[in-house]
Design goal:
Strand content: 15-25%
Distance between the termini: 14 Å
Number of helices: 9
Shape: globular
Helix content: 40-55%
Bound molecules: zinc ion
Largest sheet: 2 strands, antiparallel
Radius of gyration: 22 Å
Strand order of the largest sheet: 1-6
Length: about 300
């Protein structure tokens, strides 16, 4: 079968199951591997009505936020941000990282987003945001065959300023122990990939083919394809929502694509040398050491990798 080539950096397995959400989750160990820009675009384009509803709500949130910002009303601003993010992920559940479980952690995740926004209230203007605004206003557009395009050089300059601005925001989040939960739920690497993916979604239609290609390549958003043997699969029932799920043989964890529950399938791995059944250590890695014979072996067999 032909698949988009994503390899799990945690266990080494390829992505084998069909997916619709932009976040790519390993079918074997449940780790978040990557972000698929094209899948994100599909969600966005799926229904114009649904997306317009979102844009309309977003405008309301922005109007209110601007008002509270002007009044320096932190409480109301915080609540507005909280409501916005909560709305966003309910409206687009596909955009919620599967690493965010339901319940308490979801609330903490949304709360962190609102906290960060409030923190940014006081330093909303900086050299980098000025640079970004300037680069954005300097975008040059042109028409070709009834279509609007953006000049590629001006676009790349805007991208650079955008990423520098994001980097500044990341330091506020990921260097602050108060937002420790973000490292667990949405590591910096994925946050960056998600931002890039969103940018690509917005701007690819305004780039000529060759330039769109160059952009996707430059920012590592391009996907390769590979042929692999179809893995054997078996069915499980999600412990939480009772949906039927197909998992590839040898999988250890299955994150339910309906409810994000982590179904633990296996807590042990058999040594390839002596057959001893080893308990998986808490933060297990691809290769563990057998406690019976001391050889190192791979937890997920490289059969598909
Ligand atoms: Zn994995
Ligand atoms: Zn479920
Ligand atoms: Zn052994």
């Amino acid at each position: 079968m032909r698949i988009k080539k994503f390899t799990c950096y945690h266990c080494g397995a390829p992505k084998v199951n069909h997916y619709e959400n932009p976040y790519i989750v390993c079918d074997y160990c449940g780790f978040m591997i990557d972000v698929d820009y094209a899948a994100g675009l599909q969600v966005w384009n799926h229904s114009a009505e649904h997306t317009n509803k979102y844009l309309e709500m977003k405008r309301n949130f922005e109007t209110n936020s601007a008002k509270y910002l002007k009044q320096k009303n932190k409480e109301a601003y915080w609540q507005e941000q909280y409501n916005y993010w909560d709305f966003y992920y309910i409206h687009y559940p596909e955009y919620l990282p599967p690493s965010v479980p339901k319940g308490e952690k979801y609330k903490l995740f949304i709360k962190a987003a609102a906290d960060m926004a409030v923190e940014a209230m006081s330093n909303s203007s900086s050299q980098r945001s000025d640079n970004y605004n300037k680069a954005y206003q300097s975008l040059v557009y042109y028409q070709k065959g009834n279509k609007n395009f953006v000049n590629y050089i001006s676009f790349l300059l805007m991208m650079q300023a955008y990423l520098e601005l994001q980097e500044q925001g990341f330091r506020i989040v990921y260097d602050n122990p108060a937002y420790k939960i973000m490292n667990e739920l949405l590591p910096e690497k994925f946050q960056l990939k998600m931002k890039l993916s969103q940018i690509a979604q917005t701007w690819i239609p305004y780039l000529e083919d060759k330039e769109a290609d160059d952009f996707l390549e430059k920012y590592d958003l391009k996907q390769e394809y590979a042929d692999i043997e179809e893995p054997q699969r078996y069915q499980i029932i999600c412990e939480d929502c009772k949906s039927e799920l197909l998992v590839p043989k040898g999988a250890l964890v299955c994150i339910c694509r309906h409810c994000r529950h982590q179904n633990i399938l296996k807590k042990t791995a058999n040594c390839l040398n002596c057959g001893f059944e080893n308990e998986l250590p808490q933060n297990w890695n691809n290769i563990i050491t057998c406690s019976a014979c001391n050889t190192q072996f791979r937890v997920v067999l490289p059969l598909f990798g």
